[in-house]
Amino acid sequence: MQIWNPMFECMDREELRKVQSERLSSAVDRVYHNVPFYRQKMQEKGILPGDIKSVDDLKHLPFTKKQDLRDNYPFGLFATPMSEIVRIHASSGTTGKQTVVGYTRRDLDTWSEVMARTLTAAEIGRNSFLQIAYGYGLFTGGLGIHYGAEKVCASVIPISGGNTKSQLQVMQDFGTTNIACTPSYALYLAEEIEERGIDRSQLKLKTGIFGAEPWTESMRNELEERLGIKAVDIYGLSEIIGPGVAFECMSRKGLHISEDHFIPEIIDPVTGEVLEEGMEGELVFTTITKEGLPLIRYRTHDISRLSLGKCDCGRTIARMSKVTGRTDDMLIIRGVNVFPSQIESVLLETANIAPHYQLIVDRVGKLDELEVLVEMSPDLFSDEVKKLEIVEAGIKKEIQATLGISVKVRLVEPKTIARSEGKAVRVIDKRKF
Amino acid sequence: MLVKQISVFIENKAGRLADVATCLANEGIDTRALSLADTTNFGVLRLIVDQPEKALEVLKACNFAVSITDVISVLVPDVPGGLAEVLKIFNERNLDIEYMYAFIGKESGKAIVILRVDKPEEAIEKLKDTNIF
To answer: Hey, is the C-beta of A412 within 8 angstroms of any chain B C-beta?
Structure first.
């Protein structure tokens, strides 16, 4: 098995700890002096940068939440002058405001480095043709993988998301050996290949790297079976860097975290206490090399476990288990982050009232589908069908504009949305992860 | 003349029409006429009943989305051309009809037509010199 950077990926854990401690204290020093938000939070807790000497001191530092990024929208948590920022990405936010992240030249190098490790672990290199079917743009998926792929000298096909017909054409004509996309889109491609009667033996696909949404082992089996490939899980979030935070190797026994750049912790989501190795809890990351947007103890709300043992592949860096759920109400639909509160604010604005609503998420065929049920209220109701249809279409249009994905909207009778202890059940997720 | 119409929001699922009917029957409310407009997912049931205000309360209590609207009721001779004559009168007075439905009245030889127009009271004013009520 190939390893891009054995020095760090296979470093002795004691040695790694020293590297992390050194980088951590310098990162804390930088945020204290350059980001008023962190200075204030540390002062409130009576912590000075010099107090953080090693990884053991990490637990004394306050957490950073997604809300903090929103409160400091757009660039308030950046630790360098904007003249140093060479790239800006953003992901959808909860109340219209996006989560904005910035990269310095060196951050882009770091990103390419961790993606190069990711791709190498999936046996993608100079002889590979990598079709990147993640969206290019503000979303970190497309460009993040792109730069890492160029670094490992793969022949990059930056086709971006969508346009299935053209994806399949390119896959056949260019001899794509690897594909990067969401697992649900990969299944959709598999289906289309079968439907169009494309001869699979004519395809050169070997491995696929799939991420940006949760998926199960059974989905992995199905993908491998139907596409005739090895399916590999990748993990990342734009706040930390984008794709490349953690990756599976061919042993596929957890996702390796590039710990020389990102320190992981597992905490009890309620008490905030750090949990021991192997226990399930909320994943928290501290970036120790990032310049543009360093984050201290950033709460991901993803549920996972850590394991520090050496992997069959020889890597010594920590492994996280496949993400099994969320500690908040965020949904990932077709790779897009959706919070129920986004839909609530749309309903408030469009219908000018706070109607009872429910989100039903299902995987219809191979793609996620979101249906929004809205309870009829006296204010919305009309005896004219035409007017009700306008209401329905208006809500649909606004939600789609806010989320950027298509939804179905259905008006339902009052008091028909299930309530538990008086509180409406906001989300029914029928997908199996 | 102006009459009160009850409209009820109904999802397209089994038994909902029967639920409305039962709800009204239990309170001794008599339904004179009804029409149902439907789309893929829902329908709007329109009713003319003997006690509209009571029907409104009763259906609300049963958790239905209900509204009460003024509609125009006219008597139409039950002969060929009867309806055409009435509609001609509406047309001549620029009265736009949103929807309508008809039923046979108790008075023999006459049908009753319910018409929904934008401003029912103004419409009544415009129609008062005719003999359609």
So the answer is: yes
Burial A221-252 (b: 16+ CB within 10 A, else e): ebbeebbebbbbbbbbbbbbbbbbbbbbbeeb
**Any B CB within 8 A of A393 CB:** no
Give CA–CA dist B57/B55, Å, rounded: 5
| A-B contacts (CB, under 8 Å) | 55
In order of start, what are the domains of chain B with their CATH numbers? 2-69 (3.30.2130.10), 70-127 (3.30.70.260)
pLDDT in tens, A158-185: 999 889 999 999 999 999 999 999 888 8
CA-based torsion, B59, B61, B62, B64: positive or negative: positive
Listed in sequence order, the residues at least 6 apart from A378 whose beta carbon sits closer than 8 Å to its beta carbon are: B65, B66, B67
Tens of pLDDT along A369-391? Answer: 999 999 888 888 999 999 999 98
Which has the closest alpha carbon to B41: A21, A410, A279?
A410
| Sheet order of strands, A262-267 included | A262-267, A281-287, A298-304, A325-326
Out of A377, A386, A410, the one facing B65 most closely (by C-beta) is A377
At A42, the pLDDT band (50, 70, 90 cuts) reads very high
For chain A, domains (ranges, CATH) are 1-328 (3.40.50.12780), 331-429 (3.30.300.30)
This complex has an ipTM of 0.86
Distance of CA B34 to the CA centre of its chain: 6
